[in-house]
Amino acid sequence: xxxxxxxxxxxxxxxxxxRVDINVPVExxxxxxxxxxxKIVPTVKDxxxxxxxxxxxxxFGRPKGKVVPEMSLxxxxxxxxxxxxxxxxxxxxxxGAPAKKAVAAMQPGEVVLLENTxxxxxxxxxxxxxxxxxxxxxxxxxxxxxSAAHRAHSSTEGIAHILPSAxxxxxxxxxxxxxxxxxxxxxxxxxxxxxAKVSTKLDLLGNLVSKVDHLVIGGGMANTFLVALEIDVGxxxxxxxxxxxxxxxxxxxxxxxxxIHLPVDVVVAREFKAGAENETVANDxxxxxxxxxxxxPKSVAAIAKVFEESKTLIWNGPLGAxxxxxxxxxxxxxxxxxAELTREGKLISVAGGGDTVAALNKAGVAGDFTYIxxxxxxxxxxxxxxxxxxxxxxMQ
Length: 396
Hints:
By secondary structure, this protein is α/β, with parallel strands linked by helices. It contains 15 helices and 17 strands. The longest helix has 15 residues, at 169-183. It is elongated.
């Protein structure tokens, strides 16, 4: 890959502008989940160890180019100091006199946190003047925010064209994992795509059928494919107007030699609630007054067999209504099978997307996957085959 890592950068005595994602939940001025803060620690500590001076750039919420006191990054300072084990100085702006003063006063081993980049309207417009004003504060640029890499903003893309740039450790790990999964994967490759609607994942499905050997489709979108095959799905969630689109994807997959796997049996119920009375039937035997809420045990067994035959797995989206038992059974069982094969060294498993991370955590296997991306939109756009501006800017 053409992007540089921290290992290739001379950081001794240099101010490193580090774009991070620390958009964490805060209640009453206190961070309630510090996961994203913990994830930037390796990058910041490596910069400090190389004699660099880390200056953190980050956004918080959606202030839409205005100063919104409730969206200040200042409340994050105590949590950052706790995670990094060093002094963190806060600057009241990300450019101009407050930022310059804080950077000039930095001592070795200290970190500066600049105020919310989105307090400036130019940030989301990728304004060259704002990019230049930010860049003027540092000597090198490190992007460690893959989760914001799908946005061409001043702090994620603009600065990279001005200063010598590198990927931070989190960005590096993400890019390596994604390259291993779709760029130059060990084959056969299997993708699991679930979720409610085909319409939200059209680009994703269209890209994957030309890249993977097996595509497992689950969740509500599987019902749309069943409708496309003229199978009655009763009162199930399905985009019946997308049936022709689903047929097109099936045809494209056949041409590309990609095997599509749909549920062969399904779990149906008359109501969607915890512990609802349910039954398992063949995929073409859903009663008129019932809805499909999960894949059945035969489907899970078939998916497990595909996993066993595969060397690489990419997962985005649950197989059923995983939020409520017993309709989480297929997702849990398939996730546990993938985790088992990964632990045994037989499978490279990469997963991402909000519901996916929640589902894998619920199944208790998140720690067993090769890599789990918490990037959301950026992960999805990467799976769709789109260029991510924040990554492309590093490849100069």
